[in-house]
Write a structure and sequence with these properties.
Layout lengths: L1 H31 L6 E2 L9 H12 L3 H12 L2 E6 L2 E6 L2 H10 L4 E2 L1 H12 L8 H11 L5 H21 L5 H12 L12 H23 L9 H27 L11 H4 L9 H8 L3 H15 L2 H14 L2 H12 L8 H5 L2 H13 L5 E6 L3 E7 L5 E5 L4 E5 H4 L29 H4 L15 H14 L1
Parallel strand pairs: 1-2, 3-8
Antiparallel strand pairs: 2-3, 4-5, 5-8, 6-7
Helix pairs in contact: 5-9, 7-8, 7-20, 8-13, 9-10, 10-12, 10-13, 14-17, 14-20
Length: 471
C-alpha cells in the first residue's frame, strides 16, 4: 500500500512539475518574440470548455450555427481564444494570420493529429488526413487526375446526366452522384437510372454513415473513444469492400499497360501521356502506385471531398437567382448571346457575368464555411495579441487554429464595402477584385489557400458553369 501511495504521489508531482516547467518555458518563448495573449471567450467551464461545446451542439441542431458564428466574432473580435476539451483554440479571421497558417508558416500547421485518429478506420492515410511527406506524396498522386482532358471529358458526361435529370428532376443530388462516380471510379453508379444497383445504393448508405461517424469522432476530440458504434464500423467495412472492387479493376489496368519486368516501378513516363486523354482518377492513381490500400484510401478521400460540393454550390446559385430576377435576366442575356454555340471548358470560364455569379455565391455561401488546423510545433501568429490585437500571439504545439470563410467573406472593409451581406455579382467588376490581387487572396478563400488549396477548383467551377448555362 505504501509503495502504491508513493507511486501516486510521485506521478502527481511529476505531472505538476512538467506543467509548471511547460508554462514558464512557453512564457519565456512568448516574451522573447514580443507575443501577448489574445482575448479569451468567457467560459463557464474553464477546464474543458464543455459549455462552449454544448452550446455549439445546440445551435447546430437548431440550424443557427453560421449566424451565431458571425455574432461571436462581432462580440469577441476578429481574434479570440476558446477552450476545446482542455486544448486552446485560436479563432481568427485576420488575413495576416490566415496567410501565416496557410502559406508563410505552412509547415508549422497541419491536420493529421485532428483527422487521422478519428478517420483512420474509415479512409486511412491520404491527402485529407496526413501532413508532411505523406501528404506531399498523396497530392502528387492526385494532381495528374485533374488535368484539362479529364475536366473537359467530365463536362461532356455531365451534359448527358443533365439530359436524364431534366426528365426526373431528383431532389437529392443524384446528378452529381452519377458524374462524380464516373470521374473517380470510371463507372457511373446509375443514380439517375431506374436500375441503380443494390450494391451502389448500399455503398452510398454506408459511405454516408461512415462519414457522419468520422465527423462526430473529430468533434469529440480526445474523447473520440466514447464513440463505439458497431453500425459505424460495419459501414466502414461495407465502404471498403465496395471500393476494393474498383481498386482491383484499376490494378488490372495497371498490369495491362506495364511489362512484367516493370510491374513494381512507378510508371512516370506513362504519366506524361495522361494529359492527352481522359481517364478515371483511380486509374491515374494506379499509374503511380500498386499499393491497394493507398489506392482505396485516396479514392475514398477524393469521393469524400467531391460528395455534394458542386451540387451544394448549384443549389445556392439557383437559390440566389430565384430571389434576384434582375441578375437572372442579365445572366440569360449572356447565355443567349452564345447562339447555337456549345460552350467548351475555356468558354465557360471566360463568361464574365456567369463567373461573377459563381464567385459571389461562393463568397456568401462558401461550401466549407469553417476550416481548422493544428500547430505541429511552437510557432506564432502575427496579430491578435494584446489589448488592441496588434501584437503577435505565441502558439504552443497542439493549439487548434479555427477560421470561418463565412464570416471572413462578410466583413465590412475596403474589399467588400459597406454591403457585404448583399448578393451583388457586379462587385466583381471592381479592379481591386481581379484574380491575383494579394489583398483579396486572404479575404476570399472558398477553396482554401496555399499548398493545400483545393486541387479540384477548376473542375468544380467548370461543372457549375456548365449546369447553369444549360439550365
Amino acid at each position: 500500500m505504501a509503495i502504491l501511495l508513493t507511486y501516486l504521489i510521485t506521478t502527481i508531482c511529476l505531472y505538476f512539475t512538467y506543467h509548471v516547467y511547460r508554462y514558464f518555458h512557453h512564457f519565456h518563448l512568448a516574451r522573447s518574440n514580443g507575443c501577448l495573449p489574445t482575448r479569451k471567450y468567457p467560459h463557464k467551464d474553464p477546464f474543458l470548455g464543455l459549455d462552449f461545446f454544448l452550446e455549439t451542439g445546440k445551435i447546430l441542431s437548431e440550424n443557427r450555427y453560421l449566424p451565431e458564428l458571425e455574432a461571436r466574432y462581432g462580440t469577441y473580435g476578429s481574434t479570440f481564444q476558446t477552450n476545446l476539451f482542455g486544448t486552446p483554440s485560436i479563432n481568427t479571421i485576420v488575413p495576416e494570420n490566415l496567410q501565416a497558417v496557410y502559406s508563410s508558416n505552412f509547415k508549422d500547421w497541419g491536420v493529421e493529429p485532428l483527422r487521422l485518429p478519428a478517420q483512420d478506420p474509415f479512409c486511412g492515410r491520404g491527402f485529407i488526413t496526413t501532413d508532411g511527406a505523406a501528404w506531399e506524396h498523396s497530392r502528387a498522386l492526385l494532381k495528374p487526375g485533374f488535368n484539362r482532358a479529364n475536366i473537359v471529358a467530365g463536362l461532356e458526361g455531365l451534359g448527358k446526366a443533365l439530359e436524364k435529370m431534366m426528365g426526373k428532376i431528383p431532389d437529392d443530388g443524384r446528378t452529381y452522384l452519377d458524374t462524380s462516380t464516373e470521374f473517380l471510379f470510371g463507372e457511373s453508379f446509375g443514380a439517375l437510372s431506374d436500375f441503380s444497383s443494390e450494391d451502389s445504393q448500399a455503398f452510398m448508405s454506408a459511405f454516408d454513415n461512415a462519414m457522419f461517424g468520422s465527423g462526430f469522432r473529430i468533434a469529440l476530440g480526445p474523447f473520440k473513444f466514447l464513440y463505439q458504434n458497431a453500425k459505424w464500423r460495419e459501414a466502414c467495412k461495407t465502404t471498403h469492400a465496395f471500393a476494393d472492387k474498383y481498386v482491383q479493376k484499376a490494378l488490372k489496368y495497371r498490369q495491362s499497360i506495364m511489362s512484367d519486368s516493370s510491374l513494381d516501378r512507378n510508371i512516370s513516363q506513362d504519366e506524361s501521356k495522361s494529359g492527352s486523354h481522359s481517364q478515371p482518377l483511380l486509374y491515374h492513381l494506379a499509374r503511380q502506385t500498386s499499393n491497394p490500400l493507398t489506392l482505396r484510401n485516396e479514392i475514398l478521400q477524393a469521393f469524400m471531398a467531391a460528395q455534394g460540393t458542386t451540387a451544394a454550390l448549384l443549389s445556392n446559385v439557383f437559390f440566389l437567382l430565384a430571389r434576384h430576377p434582375s441578375v437572372w435576366a442579365k445572366l440569360r442575356e449572356e447565355v443567349l448571346a452564345l447562339g447555337n454555340e456549345e460552350p467548351d471548358f475555356d468558354r465557360l470560364l471566360h463568361m464574365k457575368y456567369l463567373q461573377n455569379i459563381l464567385k459571389e455565391t461562393l463568397r456568401l455561401h462558401p461550401i466549407f464555411p469553417q476550416m481548422n488546423r493544428i500547430a505541429l510545433r511552437p510557432t506564432t501568429l502575427p496579430l491578435g495579441g494584446g489589448p488592441h490585437g496588434t501584437s503577435p500571439i505565441y502558439i504552443p504545439t497542439g493549439t487548434i487554429f479555427d477560421t470561418s470563410a463565412h464570416v471572413l467573406h462578410r466583413q465590412q472593409n475596403s474589399i467588400w464595402g459597406t454591403n457585404p451581406h448583399v448578393f451583388d455579382p457586379d462587385r466583381w467588376n471592381d479592379e481591386k477584385l481581379r484574380d491575383g490581387n494579394s489583398e483579396v487572396r486572404w479575404r476570399y478563400m472558398p477553396f482554401g489557400a496555399g499548398p493545400r488549396a483545393c486541387v479540384g477548383k477548376f473542375k468544380a467551377l467548370g461543372e457549375a458553369a456548365c449546369v447553369v448555362v444549360r439550365m
